Amino acid sequence: MKVFINGETKEIAEQFNLLELLREFSLPSERIAIELNKEVVRKKDWESIAIKDADRIEIVHFVGGG
Amino acid sequence: MFTLAGKTFNSRLIIGTGKYRSFEEMQAAHKASGAEMVTVAVNRVPLDRATESFLDYLSPEMQILPNTAGCYDAEHACRTARLAREALETDWIKLEVIGDKITLLPDNEQTLEAARILVKEGFIVLPYFTDDLIMAKKLLDAGCAAVMPLAAPIGSGMGVQNPSNLRIMREQLPEATIIVDAGVGVPSDAAIAMELGADAILMNTAIAEAKDSAQMATAMRFAVQAGRLGYLSGRMPKRLYASASSPLEGAIK
Prior knowledge:
The complex is a heterodimer.
Chain A: E1 2-5, E2 8-11, H1 18-24, E3 33-36, E4 39-41, E5 56-64
Parallel strand pairs in A: 1-5
Antiparallel strand pairs in A: 1-2, 3-4, 3-5
Chain B: E1 2-4, E2 7-9, E3 13-15, H1 23-33, E4 37-44, E5 63-67, H2 74-88, E6 92-95, H3 108-120, E7 124-129, H4 133-141, E8 148-149, H5 163-172, E9 179-181, H6 187-195, E10 200-203, H7 205-208, H8 213-233
Parallel strand pairs in B: 3-4, 3-10, 4-5, 6-7, 7-8, 9-10
Antiparallel strand pairs in B: 1-2
Helix pairs in contact in B: 1-8, 2-3, 6-8
């Protein structure tokens, strides 16, 4: 199925939950946040929420800024 | 001492984390500045490469103030604030809604709309906005913890362009916390903003782009202190003509 992660179209083979998605892309799970279809998903819910086809996911971290 | 949303800071200087040539240089500047709060930006994680954990380079004692930089409407700013809160477990947010890519001037209307939403959601909202008294009043009425008028456009280093606006804001809003955000270029700019009665100053580029950023951070630290003391001391009146400091009577003839 196809999902949109940080504006990029990605083909996801399995029905990952959000935590598995982070692992798939070798992303850290600390001090990041995930938004699923414009709603923030609490960290405790990452494992229980399965990704669906055409989901729009934003994964953010922190960078230098003013 | 400076209290903001119930938290006390010894330093009235708040600084950014952007544009430094290296993390080491940023750390040295942060230390030299004496600042106790730093801003950070929320950004998409790159999917194609590993990234260093930028936050590891910040002193654990620093209060982290995430911003909503890069947002051009209230909705994006609110979403960014919520993501920052989830990731950092902080309710503090520097609200920044930009209206134009060239000037990076704030969209005050969208800023106010976002402020109202975020205050309702329990955020401690610190909005960046145009140095306008009426807008400041509306933001405070919306429940913002402070107002953060610009001195000049972000990263311009132009210094306080409208000193009378800041003075009016200080005089008309004596109880409000006013943090001058953006536009400071040199220590004298910081001192002027503080002399006009600002409670604190937020700056990034003036330190990060200095040839010696740690030394500039020290200079800014002193300038903020000097300006604050100057404001508290009460300036002498301006006069069009001279007023002799030495007695005119009794000079030899």
